Amino acid sequence: MGIIKAFKLGFDYFKYDEDGNVQEMQRAVDDINLDIEAGSFVAILGHNGSGKSTLAKQLNALLLPSEGTIWVDDMDTSKEQELWKIRQKAGMVFQNPDNQIIGTVVEEDVGFGPENMGVPTEDIWKRVGDSLRKTGMTAYRHHSPNKLSGGQKQRVAIAGVMAMRPQCIVLDEPTAMLDPNGRHEVLEAVSELNKKENVTVILITHYMEEVIHADKVYVMDSGKIVMQGTPREIFSQVERLKEYRLDVPQVTLLAHELHEAGVDIPEGILTTEELVSALCQ
Amino acid sequence: MIRDITIGQYYPADSLIHKLDPRTKLLGTLMFIVSVFAFHTFWGYLVATVFLGSVILISKVPVKFIFKGLKAIFVLLLFTIVFNIILTPGEVLWRWGFIKVTKEGLVLAGRMAIRLIYLVIGSSIMTLTTTPNQLTDGLERQLRPLNKIHVPVHEIAMMMSIALRFIPILLEETDKIMKAQIARGADFENGNLIQKAKNMVPLLVPLFISAFRRANDLAMAMEARCYHGGDDRTQMKPLKYAGRDYAAYGILTGYLAIAILFRVVGI
């Protein structure tokens, strides 16, 4: 039984005119079935407007489904009395690092979640210490978030979510506004949490390089899940990915071109080392 | 550069006054203000001066910073003194045309000046030794009884602290937009006042839009982290009175008692 399950999930955005009548309706998420296993690293890929962020917001009840049901740890997100429990179970990290940090000091921001949950004071300090250590931000605990780099800010945001002791973290394009160094820093912290703390990670992104270590990849296009499988399965279908306006990693593309040109190497090569060893055989 | 600006006028130092609970400082300032109005003789002001002087010494804040606050009220001070001197009726000391200086006027002006100056210095010591966040916390705790009459104390304090956090971010953003508009030929420097105000429009519109977008994002992030107002909320750093706070309250009460005693006895 998965930690997150969705059944025939659908969501519509409405556009209202001045009198409050529905003017336009847009289906952002359409007929989605998900079953995400606890402790796994799942990536959701899609280009802009494919509905992946809308789906992310469904996962911790920031948006409620217009159709179908979604369960987080067996709790139906549309039940209001479970709302705070669900948000505690499935933490969320957003795209813009500046707009999700509330505290004026790093440690106060990390403590914000536990404060809201009504955790006793001594326990908050313990949780804050723990999650700063897990994300490698202990050295910055007394700093002002304004003076940190983008990658560090995102790590603070992740620490803030971890302090709520969630079973699952949803990251909605956490690296979109970062430079390559920051991107690497954040991904490392996330996969560390996944491996060491056994937290389920759902990474939403449009950078292909970030998903090669995932256990499972979903590809979304116009609100639907169009492909799913291991990274290798997904990346061996280069032509199909191009249809969904997604770029495969450069190594994979090179391998694909070589394969097309008749060189005897397998499809779905993910890393440089793999390509080198395949070519040397 | 613009990142480094400090909000308020906090002067970081390691002193006993800095370590006091913000509530103690808030109430202490209030008590000091009352005392300044209670004293009305030379001996009274001497006591107030000694008290204020020792607090400044303990706070380790350079005197220069403390007098900075007086600049803002300089004009007000000047008006108060001049009008008190020339408009108070009484024993005439000096006369020129319709302007006359009276003895009572001089005394009253002096008293007013001392009160104003001490008032400003007293409250600057509080703002110089307390971070804006501590002040917000202190106010939230001190005003908590107002919750009973449905004043949203927690919400107001939360808004204040979020505003404090976003001031540097929005300043930086203003800087960015300004540069972007200058690069496209906007002129923020020349023209008369009305023109200058008009030129600000291309700066303000994007700034407002982005501020609203940020507010929207932040609200979502807060909700995602289970924020649901002040009910059932615990605090990571709850305010706690330490021994030094009780000592400070003792001293303050003694000081206020002297002020009231002086007033009653008429010294």
Unreliable stretches of chain B (pLDDT < 50, length at least 5) are 1-7
How big a fraction of the residues of chain A is strand? 15-25%
Tally of separate helices of chain A? 11
- Summed over residues and divided by their number, the pLDDT of chain B gives a mean of 86
Give the integer mean of the pLDDT values of chain A.
88
State the shape of chain B. flat
State the helicity of chain A in percent bands.
25-40%
Enumerate the spans of chain A where pLDDT stays under 50 for 5 or more consecutive residues.
none
CATH architecture of the domain at 38-64 and 73-231 in chain A: 3-Layer(aba) Sandwich
Q: Any idea what the shape of chain A is?
A: globular
Structural class of chain A: alpha/beta
**Sheet of most strands of chain B:** 2 strands, antiparallel
Per DSSP, the total helix count of chain B is: 11
Main location (chain A): membrane
Membrane topology (chain A): Peripheral membrane protein
Pfam families (chain A): ABC_tran
Keywords (chain A): ATP-binding, Cell membrane, Membrane, Nucleotide-binding, Translocase, Transport
